TrEMBL record:
It comes from Candidatus Uhrbacteria bacterium GW2011_GWD2_52_7. It comes from the Bacteria. Residues 1-268 form the RmlD-like substrate binding domain. Catalyzes the reduction of dTDP-6-deoxy-L-lyxo-4-hexulose to yield dTDP-L-rhamnose. Its EC number is 1.1.1.133. The keyword Glycoprotein does not apply. This is dTDP-4-dehydrorhamnose reductase. The keyword Flavoprotein does not apply.
Length: 282
């Protein structure tokens, strides 16, 4: 069995490589240098030659505020919308499943009770728009597809140049550098641990589950960034003073959803956020 994984050096990509390899798959790992997912002809030819048993797209342009810039938006759109479309078409052409990852930022963030998988998307930011378009394209292509939404991803930093660190690592670093931390307390979500997301992805395509949209987040009540930081510091034994502040204290170019908790109603519950944090911190 063979798995083609794009964006394979990122935080999620490296965990996907590990789980599929551990389960006996031959992993074909690509990055932007080895496969340009925005080039339809290249993608179709690569997948036709590779003949994988599953195509998994972990590539994304996720510098949320940068996407608001007029010169960056076309780049993000090509990667986040056209890239998944090309990969979905290539997977369908050879009759294999396609997995694509999306985000809670496809929602407006005005449902305190949270969003189910089939709720209508209504992104506030241009980044969210590109991700919503990617979802739409994948569904229009059809075939056996899995759109997996996640939120507040944390895990080991990616291997690629410019890879972002997670909120968990950022908080632990800032706690050492600053006498007091101000942390946003009016944006609610459900964090996702990268290794758990990778394992859930493997389960999705190998059971297999019915095609469609899935919300793959760790179990637990939705949290604000401040509440999440409190959990991190409690487990890590960090005593640095911190205070909750509104998101307006940190102005951003992109408008972000305030209440966009993802409800997992279609997949087995992932382990608790506390257990995931404990695993990450040990």
């Amino acid at each position: 069995m063979k798995a083609l994984i794009t964006g394979a050096n990122g935080m999620l990509g490296q965990e996907l490589r590990r789980i599929f390899s551990d389960e006996g798959y031959e992993v074909v790992a690509t990055d932007r240098e080895t496969l340009d997912i925005t080039d339809r002809d290249q993608v179709l030819a690569f997948v036709r030659e590779c003949r994988p048993d599953v195509v998994i797209n972990a590539a994304a342009y996720n510098l949320v505020d940068k996407v608001e810039e007029a010169n960056i938006y076309p780049i993000a759109y090509a990667i986040n919308a056209l890239g998944p479309k090309n990969l979905a078409e290539a997977a369908k052409a050879i009759g294999v499943p396609f997995v694509h990852f999306s985000t809670d930022y496809v929602f407006a963030g005005n449902k305190l009770e949270g969003y189910a998988e089939d709720d209508a998307t209504s992104p506030l930011s241009k980044y969210g728009q590109t991700k919503a378009e990617g979802e739409r394209f994948v569904q229009e292509v059809g075939g056996t597809f899995y759109i997996c939404r996640l939120s507040k991803l944390f895990g080991r930093p990616g291997l690629g140049e410019g890879s972002k660190v997670s909120f968990v690592e950022l908080m632990l670093r800032l706690a050492k550098e600053k006498p007091e931390l101000s942390i946003v307390d009016d944006e609610v979500g459900c964090p996702t641990y990268a290794p758990d997301l990778a394992c859930a992805t493997f389960e999705l395509v190998t059971k297999p589950y019915p095609p469609g949209v899935y919300h793959l987040v760790n179990s637990g009540e939705p949290v604000t960034w401040y509440a999440f930081a409190q959990e991190i510091f409690a487990l890590a034994g960090v005593a640095t003073p911190r205070k909750p502040v509104p998101s307006s204290a940190f102005p951003r170019a992109a408008q972000l959803p305030k209440a966009a908790a993802l409800l997992n109603t279609k997949f087995l519950p992932l382990r608790s956020r506390k257990e995931a944090l404990e695993h990450f911190l040990t």
